[in-house]
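Notes to self after the Tuesday call (sharing in case useful).
The group wants a holo model before anyone commits to mutagenesis around the pocket. I volunteered. Ligand is D-mannonic acid. Logging inputs and output together so the record is complete.
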Amino acid sequence: MTRLSNGTLPHLPETIARPDYDRGEVTVGIVHLGIGAFHRAHQAVFTDEVLARDPSWGICGVSLRSADTRDALQPQDGLYTLKVQDGLGETLRIIGSVVETLVAPEDPQAVLVRMADPATRIVSLTVTEKGYCHNPATGALDDTHPDVLHDLQNPGKPRSAIGFIVEALALRQAAGIEAFTLLSCDNLPSNGDVLKRVVSRFADLRDPGLAAFVAGVACPSTMIDRIVPATAESDRAAIAVALGVEDAWPVVTEPFRQWVIEDDFPLGRPQWEAAGAVFVPEVSAFETMKLRLLNGSHSTLAYLGYLAGAETVAQAMALPGMQPLIEGLMRDEVSPTLPALAGFDLPAYRDALIARFNNPSLRHRTWQIAMDGSQKLPQRLLATIRDRMRAGASYDRLVLGVAAWMVYARGLDEARQAIDVRDPLAGRIAAMTQGLYDPEEIVAALLSLTDVFGGDLSGDAGFKAKLVDALSRLFSTGAMAEISAWREARG
Ligand code: CS2
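Result:
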């Protein structure tokens, strides 16, 4: 079948929206590290909508690991389909903002040349939590991380995003080119500050002569939001039928999208506000709200739902008791911990989240969200628990989410079948819990992970007792019974 490309674009059915600018005029202004589905359904779409105003903000998408995206997009001239769907219908649109794709392990030099080019004024990232090579509990660079050690020894051939950024900054400093703006788009609290911290520390370890230059780099924080499940084969097939040409790399998402950004771009930026992005002086209150309400609920849904046999988030939401559990978690346990946001309608935001989780047409797998729990738990559930403990308030639903993670991370489901656990700490967790069946011993073993729980929660007897209690119930009666216990709960 013919592929989607610049050549076939004019022949697509008229109902399918497409770039409203001349792609031939677009040049690279942004290098994006981590060109996965999320970036292509979020920042690349905002950029696509404003390229007609200034074509100098095209995106060079870099894969830090596999060649899949480049192999799929190159024959399509970087074009791909965005399918937006909810229970009411769907729309298709062709996105054209990605004009170059590079595979870092194949040619690190090409990536560095692009990053060091004066035309590159923004380097953005979606490399997931673990891509920051940091200690998730403290946010500091993990100096012992294998990628950090590798990149310090091989500066011209980095592996990690941090290694690429610092080497590119060194090249720019040497050539007398101003630093690009660094834009973290990952789900971390104050993501710009985290990025600045790890990049600065790495630069210090590498060459103290870089310190002043790196200190001057702008790292605005952002809150990004759109639910983007992994694309399924059935999506690809349906999209090919609708387009009349094959698209090997479409993305599927929901109608909702949100992007809140701190306006600190010394070398300029696209007019993303024209596509609905919101620029604010300080993003952290938005980020905390989103991480604790959306992502905290997501992780709870993922672990409990997976254990109860739900394959997708919508299926997990349909389990008897799950919706009241999640509503109560958001309303009674998370919301009281959130910083005030003047004029913001929190109950409406929570209702919208419930509707988004219930979106029947998104097949968002619980297994996908369950990935990398050790990197996600600190900002999604544990920070909230800390605040609740400080206030002397209850956190029964939050602790259930953490206990469900413990069952999941240990790697055995309720039928004693192995779970395919994807987590940088999976090996360590399996080793430390092997042969343990007593909830108290399992909790004690896992709480010793101070890079997840921090010294404070690791040693907190009250927290431990609650975890042991929740884990014992999950082991004895199972996740389904635990969830249905919240059926009648009202506050
Ligand atoms: C999800 C997020 O996979 C996950 O961990 O919680 O990717 C979530 O879908 C996005 O943050 C929504 O903006």
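Two things stood out.
The chain has a mean pLDDT of 97.
The CA atoms of residues 38 and 349 lie 21 Å apart.
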